[in-house]
Write the structure tokens for this entry.
Amino acid sequence: MGKLVFAAIVFVVGYALYVTVQRQRRLLPTALAEIVPRAILAVAIGIPALIVLFSIFRIIPAGQVGVKVLFGEVEPVPLREGLNVVWNPLYDIVIMDTRVQKHTTRYDAASKDLQAVHVEMVLNYRLVPDRAPEVYKSIGLNYSSVIIDPAAQEVLKAQTATHNAAEILVRRQAIKSDVQAGITQWLTKYGVELKEASLANIRFDANYEKAIEAKQIEEQKAEQKRYELIQAQRQAEIAAASAKGRGDAAREEARGVAEALRLKGDAEAAYNARVAASLTPVLIQQQYLARWDGRLPQYTLGSSSAVPFLQIPTPSDGRR
């Protein structure tokens, strides 16, 4: 609309100047008396004509749509990206971005046990192209602050109010999914599509965070004590098993030695019994004779049944 107003002003000023020059043309040199008025008229008509011509062709950049507005009335059908022909040059074209945008804000909420929760939330959203005229008409260009912030704040409060503060960090993924589903449902009613919602940072009040930190330290110490106790029990079990193993080994070794001695004694007894059974008087006499060196004893003392051995001189002994 501003371009057409400018074109009208140019035309009016140019035409007035043309009329004035025509009335005063006798004051101009003869050579310029015909050229100057025609030049002024050409400019007065040509510039507005070019402005009107270029106002018919509208180029919408990629990732955006154009909303046609005529004297405050919004057309329901948007202009798509690329070259568009708008036969009525009086339309104002409002460009609205339909690409994915990032919205980061810190929100405050409360847990079920009334602990303050501070969440930094990152929302990726986009304007639905077909509903851009509706959003512009009902909300305006600053729709992100008008509907996204209240929606995120309300949904987050509703979710954190169902969890204790200690559960919020543990169930972070579940809460994130519920928050995303709630915000998506909320924004869809207004022509905005939520692509992703993330809970970038979750914090509590300083005093509560200190209490959580102290509790975690105590839990870590208790866990360390339990670990040390388990290790000590394992070491005791290992030592007991080792001692039992050594005792069993010693008993088995003693049993083996005793069994070996028993077997050895049995073998020797069996051998001696066989030897004793085989020693007859004839065999003993034979063994004696086999080991005799040929010399007779001078006398032999023994029982009355013993046979005396006497040394009988030989002839050779008499000659000596």
Notes: Residues 316-320 have pLDDT under 50 and may be disordered. The beta strands are 57-60, 64-70, 73-74, 82-85, 92-97, 101-110, 116-127, 192-204. The domain at 101-204 is CATH 3.30.479.30 (Tetrahydropterin Synthase; Chain A). The two ends are 178 Å apart (CA to CA).
